[in-house]
Amino acid sequence: MATYVIGDIQGCFDELHALLSLVNYDDQHDTLWFCGDLVNRGPKSLEVLRFVRSLGDRAITVLGNHDLHLLARYYQGKIPAPDNSLYPIFQAKDLKKLMKWLRHQPLAHYDKKHNMLMVHAGLAPQWDLTTTLNCAAELSNAIKSHGYTLFFDNMYGDKPDRWSEKLTGWDRLRFIANTLTRLRYCDSEGRYQMKPKGAPGTQPPGVMPWFEHPARNNLNFTTLFGHWSTLGIHQSNHVISLDSGCLWGGSLTAFRIEDREFFSLPCTQRALQK
């Protein structure tokens, strides 16, 4: 019995199955965790959604920014063009069921036994575990509750850029969403810097990866995340990064929690859209 945490798939369905074969995945006893961004840019987003949904309780996935983008397009009635990688999803007979399932997935998952937290992107420096889980549940409840479409109407934007308990309404939910699904860099005051997307060392002066902030309040557990393909596989400061850039011609990576071993499979896919 093993638990495998898998980085961003983004529609790379064939590579996912090859990776599961590589680790000798046992669909009766093993559990899969997915770091979010199941869809977009890769060639088989529909197949990935159907597969992960079919796993039921054998899989846990958190929502990533591309997953939220898919939900926003669906609930706003914005059908993508035929050459868009998301188009096949909108033509699927089970579209409504897939979107309802996706909308009910969490933004964070904590495993007490292993003291590990999985999110898609990052954590605010000020957040401890309790605050993180409470904020993730707050956003998840907003996405699942009556009137959820209003969140998608107010989701996009880079502000506010710093955490405060006084944040309310759409500003609060947008900040939570940006933290859990988009964050890479912040400054010494904990203000988010959304424009830099390159590997550490390429960012402007005074800007640091979120997990290197000197006043981080989330060092008493290990955070697993994806999202940052230019960072790649990375371990430091109680974090493990798992997005190894599959659809950019990199690799797809799984991390086995029980013995902390990595497995990576080189990929040949290239993004259909930038």
In brief:
The chain has one domain (3-266): Metallo-dependent phosphatases (Purple Acid Phosphatase, chain A, domain 2). Helices cover 29% and strands 17% of the residues.
CATH architecture: 4-Layer Sandwich
Q: State the distance separating the first and last CA atoms.
A: 38 Å
Strand-and-helix sequence, N→C?
A: EHEHEHHHEEHHHEEEEEEEE
Major sheet details: 5 strands, mixed
The 3D shape can be described as globular
Query: What is the name of the CATH superfamily?
Result: Metallo-dependent phosphatases
Count of strand segments: 13
Question: How much helicity do the residues have?
Answer: 25-40%
Q: Report the top-level CATH class.
A: Alpha Beta
The average pLDDT value, as a whole number, equals 95
User: For the CA atoms, what is the radius of gyration?
Assistant: 18 Å
Indicate the structural class: alpha/beta
Percent strand: 15-25%
List the uncertain runs. none
For the record, the count of structural domains works out to 1
Spatial strand order of the main sheet: 3-2-1-12-13
CATH topology: Purple Acid Phosphatase, chain A, domain 2
Report the total helices.
Answer: 8
Q: Can you offer a commentary on this structure?
A:
- It is built from 8 helices and 13 strands.
- With 274 residues, it is of the alpha/beta class.
- It has one domain: Purple Acid Phosphatase, chain A, domain 2, CATH 3.60.21.
- A 5-stranded mixed β-sheet has the order 3-2-1-12-13, with helices on one face.
- The radius of gyration is 18 Å and the shape is globular.
- The mean pLDDT is 95.
